[in-house]
């Protein structure tokens, strides 16, 4: 009954936002048309753009739907770019919950009275978001000024209820509507489930902060607050209280005489280091999470908070994104289309020339502007959006990266409108690729992986025998089942190609070792 009442509430919110118009466009059916025709929600206006109406409905539906909308905003491979852009504006601030309840949570989590842990605790929260709210305090241990982040009460139960409901609706939608199946609604809900549960666990955020702090130990461009693990639990995070100027407070930054050009360029450097050197990037870099340390205006640095969402890429994704960035900078759209196909991000049957024409037509108008006016993050968004008709499907980590790039570049342009992302990124990427694939490193890689390839070589006779056995079975299967025969042939061809590649790589590795030891 609770699920049913919640469903009625959600339907009311979405119909009030006139999302029935979207349903009417995409779904045909006598009963659906009749229901929408007599719907009392037609009395509400539908003059606002679709994306804005969806955003407002998600905000009214509450925490779970706000977070789901934020996830959707990172998926331009699944939804139109205008809707994705609107969803990026989703507000994550909510009215504060009772401080008495917050104190009860802290005391229960720490298994001690508040006065035992803190010598001072301000009962007025300094931030109240959809997942948690934050209080300023002072630790008794060491006398450190801290920020205490407390997860909202009852949130887990609410999330479990809504996710269960969303899964059921997604399964029904995928069963009956082709559009829902194409959008992979159930997969999206499951992806969202993993993200939201990670955000709920303050221990995960603490770990993310400590890892980023280690990555920037020798780098002064980004400061990460200290985490006090002894006072932190699943529902409470105690961290150093930082001071700084919000990154979007330009008047305060100018009053301090901060070098805004240098500051904007350093933002790009931080992004490139996190993505390509550390492979661990802050994926929620909106203005509310970024501050500036103005102590030395000629040498400014960033301070970042809220590490609930981070991203990382596989080695293959990292390399392909680096290639794509260089290709776009060089306006080599054929190479971009080849990368999308080779990486399996679009339908493998896609013709490179056709995809190139599509991408070129979407991107060329942007290149008529001066380079410093082009927003590279938006350019990637256009590329992904234009490739949607080729069944574009990319991993969530890549979409988080694209969203992060848009945020970083947007902040940089806000600080210094003439920021030239290209001038900073191009030499960095060229050096990164040449360094990563220099002969010395390849030699080290070959030594490190020699055992793996030797084991592969040892198993070659067994693999070859299996292939020969399959060859002998082909004639028997041919008469019996033509379709099965074709599948077997396909499997055989793949294995033959695999054996050839394996033999070739093994020979290359052996020859490299032989040559290396001969020279030595």
Can you tell me about this structure?
62% of the residues lie in helices and 8% in strands. With 520 residues, it is of the alpha+beta class. Strands 1, 2, 3, 4 and 6 form a five-stranded antiparallel sheet that branches. It has a four-stranded mixed sheet with strand order 5-10-9-7. The relative contact order is 0.07.
Q: Which labels suit this protein?
A:
520 residues, 62% helix, 11 strands, disordered C terminus, five-stranded antiparallel sheet
Oligomer: single chain
**Rg over CA atoms:** 27 Å
| Strand segment count | 11
Class of secondary structure makeup: alpha+beta
Ranges where pLDDT stays below 50 over 5 or more residues in a row are: 26-31, 463-479, 516-520
Distance between the termini: 77 Å
Shape: globular
Main pleated sheet:
5 strands, antiparallel
What percent of residues are in strands? 5-15%
Helical residues, percent: 55-70%
Number of helices: 24
Calculate the mean pLDDT score and round it. Answer: 78
TL;DR of this structure?
The strands form three sheets. Strands 1, 2, 3, 4 and 6 form a five-stranded antiparallel β-sheet that branches. Mean pLDDT is 78; it is low at 26-31, 463-479 and 516-520.
Write the SSE topology.
Blueprint: H1 2-16, H2 20-26, H3 30-38, H4 50-61, H5 63-72, H6 81-87, H7 99-110, H8 114-117, E1 118-121, E2 127-128, E3 132-139, E4 145-151, H9 155-176, H10 178-182, H11 185-200, H12 202-215, E5 222-223, E6 236-240, E7 245-246, H13 250-255, H14 260-278, E8 281-282, E9 290-293, E10 301-304, E11 310-311, H15 315-329, H16 333-342, H17 352-363, H18 376-386, H19 396-415, H20 421-436, H21 439-448, H22 450-458, H23 460-480, H24 482-519
């Amino acid at each position: 009954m609770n699920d049913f009442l919640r469903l009625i509430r959600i339907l009311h919110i979405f119909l009030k936002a006139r999302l029935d118009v979207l349903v009417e466009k995409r779904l045909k059916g006598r009963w659906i048309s009749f229901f929408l025709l007599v719907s009392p929600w037609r009395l509400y206006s539908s003059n606002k753009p679709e994306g804005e109406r969806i955003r407002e409905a998600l905000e009214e539906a509450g925490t779970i739907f706000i977070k789901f909308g934020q996830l959707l905003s990172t998926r331009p491979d699944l939804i139109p770019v205008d809707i994705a852009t609107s969803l990026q504006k989703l507000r994550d601030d909510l009215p504060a919950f009772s401080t008495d309840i917050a104190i009860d949570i802290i005391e229960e989590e720490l298994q001690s009275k508040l006065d035992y842990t803190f010598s001072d605790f301000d009962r007025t929260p300094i931030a109240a978001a959809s997942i948690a709210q934050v209080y300023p305090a002072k630790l008794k241990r060491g006398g450190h000024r801290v920020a205490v982040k407390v997860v909202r009460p009852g949130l887990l139960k609410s999330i479990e209820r809504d996710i269960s409901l969303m899964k059921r609706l997604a399964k029904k939608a995928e069963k009956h509507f082709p559009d829902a199946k194409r959008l992979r609604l159930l997969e999206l809900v499951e992806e969202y489930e993993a993200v939201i549960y990670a955000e709920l666990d303050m221990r995960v955020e603490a770990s993310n902060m400590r890892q980023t702090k280690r990555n920037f130990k020798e780098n002064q461009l980004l400061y990460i607050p200290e985490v006090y693990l002894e006072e932190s639990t699943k529902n409470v995070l105690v961290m150093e209280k930082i001071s700084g100027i919000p990154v979007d407070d330009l008047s305060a930054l100018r009053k301090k005489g901060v070098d805004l050009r240098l500051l904007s360029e350093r933002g790009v450097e931080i992004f490139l280091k996190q993505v390509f050197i550390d492979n661990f990037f802050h994926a929620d870099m909106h203005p509310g999470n970024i501050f500036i340390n103005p102590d030395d205006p000629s040498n400014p640095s960033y301070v970042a908070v809220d590490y609930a969402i981070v991203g990382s890429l596989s080695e293959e994704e990292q390399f392909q994104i680096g290639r794509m960035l260089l290709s776009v900078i060089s306006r080599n759209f054929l190479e971009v289309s080849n990368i999308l196909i080779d990486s399996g991000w679009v339908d493998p049957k896609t013709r490179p020339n056709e995809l190139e024409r599509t991408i070129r037509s979407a991107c060329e108008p942007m290149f008529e502007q001066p380079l410093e006016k082009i927003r590279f993050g938006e350019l990637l968004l256009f590329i992904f959006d234009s490739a949607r008709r080729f069944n574009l499907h990319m991993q969530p980590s890549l979409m988080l990266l694209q969203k992060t790039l848009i945020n970083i570049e947007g902040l940089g342009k806000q600080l210094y409108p003439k920021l030239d992302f290209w001038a900073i990124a191009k030499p960095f990427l060229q050096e990164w690729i040449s360094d990563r694939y220099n002969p010395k490193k390849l030699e080290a890689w070959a030594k490190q992986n020699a055992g793996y390839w030797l084991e592969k070589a040892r198993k070659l006779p067994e693999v070859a025998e299996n292939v020969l056995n399959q060859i002998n079975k082909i004639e028997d299967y041919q008469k019996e089942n033509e379709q099965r025969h074709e599948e077997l042939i396909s499997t055989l061809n793949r294995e033959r190609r695999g054996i050839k590649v394996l033999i070739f790589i093994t020979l290359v590795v052996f020859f490299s070792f032989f040559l290396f030891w001969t020279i030595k």
